[in-house]
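Thread: "does anyone have the structure for this chain?"

Original post by V.I.:
We have the sequence but no experimental structure in hand. Need at least a predicted one for the grant figures.
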Amino acid sequence: MYTLYGTSGTGSCIIEIALNRCGVPWRQIDACSWEDTPGSATLAQINPLKQIPTLQLPEGQVLTESAAILIHLGLEFPASGLLPADPAQVIRGLVYIAANCYSAIGIIDYPQRWLDSTDQESQAQLAAGARQRLHQAWEVFADQFAAHLYSSKSTPNALGIMAAAVSRWAGGREALQQSGPEFVRLLKQIDADPLVAPVFARHWPQWREQR
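Reply from O.Q.:
Generated one for you, tokens below.
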């Protein structure tokens, strides 16, 4: 059985959807880096940074980084449709989100980790700059990857699922609504996918449709 370490409202929802798509048995252990729980203590033993999602494979191997987990599952279970037959652009897009969007969100959420200072104004300036960079990164993503979000006409692939989840954070959807409303329409289609919608609803029960 697969073991997913994560908690509500985080990127663990991406892997939850992917595991369901693969049709494999799995369980979740509630854990994160910002709360001390029995699950977090267990997570720290296999991932010292306590990053989530972390996935432990049935044989015990540990995978971290959402993009790497999705690529592994897509290759291991080709019938899931997580990766297309030619996965180059989808893999490129997954790494793009991890490198440009996830990283910026980490700075926005925790600017103090990136400064050798406790000055609140400096932290606010860093977070504001990272937010601007994040929104620019989403504009580029929409321009380059809009055609690579589905493995078929009706089934979002790993890239589509990851984009729909991560774009919910730090004003990404709002910025995209201004710069690329047609791309937002694609993301909302993924939101409504039968395997995606119930997971998103549990992770973000207060999410408003207009976003």
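V.I.: this helps a lot. The first strand starts at residue 2 and ends at 6.
O.Q.: and The mean pLDDT is 93.
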